Amino acid sequence: MRTLLGPRGCPWDKEQTFESLRPFVIEEAFEVVDAIDGGDPNALREELGDLLYQIVFQAEIARAKGLFGMDEIIDTIKEKMIRRHPWVFGDEEIGSESAEARWEEVKARERREAGTLSGVPLALPALLRATRVSEKAAAVGFDWSDAEGARRKIDEELREVDESETKEQLESEIGDLLFAVTSFARHRGIDPEAALRGTIDRFTRRFAVMERDVEAEGRSLKALDDAELDAAWEAAKSKLRATKNE
After folding, report:
1. Residue 78 contacts residue 41 (beta carbons within 8 Å)
2. Residues 199-232: tens digit of each pLDDT
């Protein structure tokens, strides 16, 4: 990395900053997720390497500015993991069921001055951020006692969506509804981000089959009426189920 950023290094690399690399860090993190979802170890190895490259890149920029280097990054995470695992590196004894709660307790103590929710990155995708915020609020007792309470909140928010009179009200109520759904998913042990990704993947596969079949008949989707679109959609679903690609 120092060679790439050195006097004889890459002109483009040498122009980069923390800020200019931000989209690449996000992109590489999501490509790691894609590789995990794809179940391909070779792809995962490659994408983890790409993400690591972004970390090293940021570290070298920081080192050149006299801020910190890779050693300090490693030391910081090492100290944090030791501090947040007193049942591993200390004298505490704890069961697996209590480990997550204890972890959140230690984190909350570290960030007490800033507040319980201060550690949730603002740059997270909205659905993931909603999940993390509700998890942290629940960790300090602000939560429904069971999944049924969270489910009733969805019904309440749906009614408020229906009662919205302005676009601004509707936007606010749809946001409340989405947040309520993430809380219900958490209570039922479902990762809403993964659930939505799965739905998008299924929709994409179905749509591709539907579009291909309609075009094979010499027609276009835009030319179909609602009933024809519904029929084409159901046919695509049936075809995928028959091939076990649903």
Report:
1. no
2. 999 999 999 999 999 999 999 999 999 999 999 9
Residue 39 backbone class (left: φ over 0; alpha: ψ -120 to 50; beta: rest)? left
Quote the tokens at residue 25. 């860090």
Residue 136: CB atoms within 10 Å: 20
For the entire predicted model, the pTM comes to 0.68
Spatial contact of 134 and 182, defined as CB atoms under 8 Å apart: yes
Assess contact for 214 and 221: CB atoms under 8 A.
Answer: yes
Torsion of CA 244, 30, 125, 120, to 10 degrees: 120
- The single-letter code of the amino acid at 143 is D
Taking the C-alpha atoms of residue 35 and residue 42, their distance in angstroms, rounded to an integer, is 9
CATH of domain 2-83: 1.10.287.1080
Would you state the CATH architecture of domain 120-190?
Orthogonal Bundle (1.10)
